[in-house]
Amino acid sequence: MNSDSIERQVSLLIIGLLIFMNFTGLNITIMEPDGALYAGIARHMVQHHDYWNLFAGGHDWLDKPHFPFWMMCLSFKLFGFTTAAYKLPAILFLLMGAGYTYLFARSLYNEKVARWAVCILLTAEHIVISNNDVRAEPYLTGLIIAAVYHLYRSQRSVFNYHVVLGALFTACAIMTKGIFALVPIGGAIAGHLAFTRQWKQLLHLRWLLAAVLVALFITPELYALYQQFDLHPEKTVFGRTGVSGIRFFFWDSQFGRFANTGPIKGNGDPLFFFHTVLWAFLPWSVMLYAAVVVFFRKRRLAVEYYCISGGLLTFALFSLSRFQLPHYLNIIFPFFAIITAQYVLGLERPQFFRVTQYIIMVIMAIAMVAIGTLYLPILNYYALFCMLLGLLLFLLLPRWLGNGTVGLVFFRTCAASLVLNIFLNLVLYPDIIRYQSGSTVARHVNRYFPGVPVDYWKGQSYSLEFYLRTPLQRYDSAGLRRAVANGPVLLLTAPEQADTLQQQGYSCQLVKEFVQFYVTRLDLRFINHKTRASALQRRWLLLVQPGRMALAE
Fold this sequence. Notes:
Layout (H helix, E strand, L loop, with lengths): L2 H21 L10 H14 L7 E2 L2 E2 L6 H13 L3 H26 L2 H13 L1 H6 L6 H17 L7 H17 L4 H14 L3 H4 L2 H13 L1 H12 L14 H15 L12 H9 L4 H13 L8 H15 L12 H13 L5 H25 L5 H21 L4 H27 L4 H12 L5 E3 L5 H6 L9 H9 L3 E5 L2 H8 L2 E11 L7 H4 L4 H4 L1 E10 L7
Parallel strand pairs: 3-4
Antiparallel strand pairs: 1-2, 4-6, 5-6
Helix pairs in contact: 1-5, 1-20, 2-3, 3-4, 4-5, 4-7, 4-17, 5-17, 7-8, 7-9, 8-11, 9-16, 15-17, 16-17, 18-20, 19-20
């Protein structure tokens, strides 16, 4: 076989392994706060056969649109209320995004750029993290690149099925995150047409048709918001009445966050995403920055402007926003992957690429060893086997691709990412999740106290609510007294609340003490096994009954 055929087979093998890698977090317990919150909302929808109204914590919930919840509901209906059922549709949408990244890159460049872009996307660190800590971004990542691809293909005639599919995917993206989803989609299409001075195409009738179709396709979301909020101005949302769900959808949730004038506020930093990319797009972040610089230096020779327009316009908008989170960038990673792939394959002098990527691989290896040494997770044979398989692949690649080639460095980087993320998903996070008290308590209660009412007294835990097999109670003082009169009640609470309950006349028996750490906010004090105890909080599971008794130890 010639070198191109070998490279193609190696790339397909790597893509298959990377798909497997992105599934390794499928059964890791859902993390708080957002993931467990979304899972609980979808579970409530299925249990109550109510797919129009969103509730969380026993109250009307107005924040995210409905589309991801509808997908979660479908999965729960098919597979039950499990961790995997929650994460599966999100991962599938991300893989759909990888497929559309391939199709888009192949149409713009060639198949090799397409395959390499898929490898870059599937190894981008925050993509892998988001397939474990699932929120809305995996859905949005797949929907946005799918919309851009079909709208790009629609330019061949006034009306074709690509216009309909492009509008449908755009509408689903809007029903996932709001109208700001139009920025990367519209930015990619309009940016390319403007840079290439295709003014007639920019004002073509098909875009009006696409806009009408998008407006039509988002009507389920508008109906859901209208009937839950606009028809009920008496409902209290964000501490006030008269809240319009449709206004929130079109304005407060988007422009309000951008300008920090809405009910949900943040503190923005114009440089936040510049340094976030360094780790979120690892191990390709340096190449991405280099690719963007070279693109603008040689912009007159550019093949296309879709990716640079959609990616950088969205990046700039996020950087100016007052509400910023690292996972926001995921939605433009398909654009970044294509930009990076075509840059790497076009290098005339690959020495910079070779040196940079080997340095990054060394840093990744050191980081993995350092984290393992500091944290001391429990190893398992399955994870060890998968990591050794990735290491074997790393060592075998020179036999297939030859020494000193760009392909060897590229696929070795993919292999290094494979080993690192298998370590994170099969070794580190399964151990860390033990410190999320809500899900741990739920499993304990399901096993030893089935049917006993449970409440998180003076606290909130979305993972407790999702993983409990019985509905989580929400007692006030009078409600607790009535519940205890009918039988024992389990309360999860901070230790200091036990004395207060006893002073109020309850008998409190300590069932078990649990440790608590917010696992999405890792810090060095927690990672270091020597200082971990000082980073942990305590939670007590109390069996509460009428009468006064000493607290059982």
